[in-house]
Amino acid sequence: MQINIDEARIVADLEKLATFSDTESPVITRVVYSESDQKARAWLKEECKASGLIVREDPLGNLFARWHGSDAAAGAVGTGSHIDAIPHSGRFDGTVGVLGALESIRALQRSGFQPRRSIELLAFISEEPTRFGIGCLGSRMLCGGLSPEKAAALKDRQEVPLDAVRNAAHFSGPLETVKLPAGYYSSFVELHIEQGPILERENIALGIVTSIAAPAALRILIEGEGGHAGAVLMPARRDAFLGAAEIALAVEAAAKGTGVIDTVGTCGLVEVFPGLANSIPNKVKLELDIRDSELARRDAVLREISQACEQIAVRRKLEITSTTLNADAPASCGPEVIDALEKACAEEKIAYQKMVSRAYHDSLFMSRIAPTAMLFIPCKNGVSHRPDEYAAPRDLANGAIVLARAMATLAS
Ligand code: GLV
Ligand code: MN
Ligand code: MN
């Protein structure tokens, strides 16, 4: 089967999507349910419809665009990723897995391929934790990994409940209906930029992901006593920020302490109250991100951080409370999807290497309901979550053609 990818179309589509942003291109800010996000979705829906796909959205805002196969009763082949973007990021994270996959579908249509199983493109809602503190909200709920009650209790950073936020973005209806019925997908495959340096460094065109590392996120509240930065003497202080600083260092020590390169810990969100140079911090909010390819090792790091918090609280006379936002298991990819990707690479004579994904993706959750794998393309200098994120047109096309062939195998 001859399949032709329109490389320029993917580039142009990514460029168009980048115009829906709260910051000027190349700096992308597209927080979920924001006006920019909604405009981007409206454009995406039109693109999907123009390609003959049947579009629907669930009450949370997951977007599905289906190419109906001849066997309506058979589970569908799913593909897709996300279009929300963290503040001050780039144009390729997630979007490649949506617009690249859309071009894969268009290429299959042009080739004359007729799918037996339906092929469905997904744009998952709220993959990034920016707004609700929890990653992969859409795929988490699709696979039943977050109950409707717990989801309804989520609040955004302005303390607005999820229901109010989604309703304002015109998504309504019971969250109970978001979970997909058993067998809905027969397989799932996600195209994504690597977000790391390996493929570029090794000069290998594609990565086939065999497992996804286990992420966890904690919110830690540290409460001390405020006061005048000049008048309160050092021995009398209960400075909440100093406790937070010690916690951040404890995170680094715990992650490095495993002696394994796969353990990573980040303290990327720090809010200091009242946030004034001449006022002693009385309260600090931290959010931590801890990941490892091995669940037991990740959980041991979480325990070590929790013990460090207890010691710091006693020594500095602070109140420290910790909430687990999520602590997810790692994912193993489905052999049949990996096989389909390997076969597609062989057909296209494109070199690949098998690899672990250290970033999390919606595939982490989709793997709970269907055999799932991911296809990585290189990104310049391994950079992601930054405006200088870049994937070359040739690499986008390589990803799209291998995805197209793999989907054809899986949908036949
Ligand atoms: C996804 O954006 C991640 O942080 O891995
Ligand atoms: Mn991301
Ligand atoms: Mn992503």
Give a verbal description of the structure:
Helices cover about 35% and strands about 25% of the residues. It is α+β, with helices and mostly antiparallel strands and about 400 residues long. Helix 3 crosses helix 12 and helix 10 crosses helix 12. The longest helix has 22 residues. The radius of gyration is 22 Å and the shape is globular. Bound molecules: glyoxylic acid and manganese (II) ion (MN) (2 copies). One manganese (II) ion binds next to loops.
SSE inventory with pairings:
Elements: H1 7-18, E1 28-30, H2 35-50, E2 54-57, E3 63-67, E4 76-82, E5 85-89, H3 95-111, E6 119-124, H4 137-142, H5 148-152, H6 162-168, E7 185-193, H7 198-202, E8 206-212, E9 214-223, E10 227-228, H8 240-257, E11 264-273, E12 279-280, E13 283-292, H9 295-316, E14 319-327, E15 331-332, H10 335-348, E16 352-357, H11 363-366, E17 372-377, H12 393-411
Parallel strand pairs: 4-6, 4-7, 7-17, 8-16
Antiparallel strand pairs: 1-5, 2-3, 3-6, 8-15, 8-17, 9-13, 9-14, 10-12, 11-13
Helix pairs in contact: 1-3, 1-12, 3-12, 8-9, 10-12
Record keyword descriptors for this entry:
4-stranded antiparallel beta sheet, 9-stranded mixed beta sheet, binds manganese (II) ion, 17 strands, alpha+beta, globular, 412 residues, binds glyoxylic acid, 35% helix
